[in-house]
Design brief:
single chain; alpha+beta; 5-stranded antiparallel sheet; 19% strand; globular
């Protein structure tokens, strides 16, 4: 009997290793690849489970991923999806406000994932807009 993607989401794993181990066998290599790409791009990111998904954080900045029935979801947030919209369109990747679907029948776009992780966890936090938001919240 194989573990369904839904079972992974409801099992509440306590670590990313447990999450990947509980995923269906055919999803594990993709999940390990995403983990590797994110941790190589931003080695200082803290790894944890949040919202039932593998999560990588630097301060308050996060990026998540999770397996689904026919894809792996990457959750970089709405600002990242908007910033990378042209590249996502060029690769034909479906997206919503803060999510990107990486279909099981396509190779993981490694450069895109690396760039998203770097942008989410480093670059966006250092942007002038992010600094202005931090400054504004510090005065309230």
């Amino acid at each position: 009997m194989t573990t369904s993607a839904r079972t992974v989401a409801t099992a509440a794993p306590q670590s990313v290793d447990a999450y990947i181990s509980a995923a269906p066998e055919e999803k594990r290599a993709r999940l390990r690849l995403l983990r590797s790409l994110i941790t190589r791009a931003v080695p200082e990111a803290a790894e944890r489970i949040s919202w039932g998904m593998p999560t990588y954080a630097v301060g308050r900045r996060t990026i998540h991923f999770a397996c689904a029935k026919a894809h792996v979801g990457l959750y970089p947030g709405s600002d990242a999806v908007e910033t990378f919209a042209d590249r996502l369109d060029a690769l034909g990747l479906a997206r919503s406000k803060g999510a990107i679907r990486l279909p099981d029948d396509l190779a993981v776009p490694e450069g895109l994932v690396t760039d998203l992780a770097t942008w989410c966890l480093r670059d966006a936090a250092a942007s002038p807009d992010a600094q202005a938001a931090r400054d504004a919240s510090a005065t309230t």
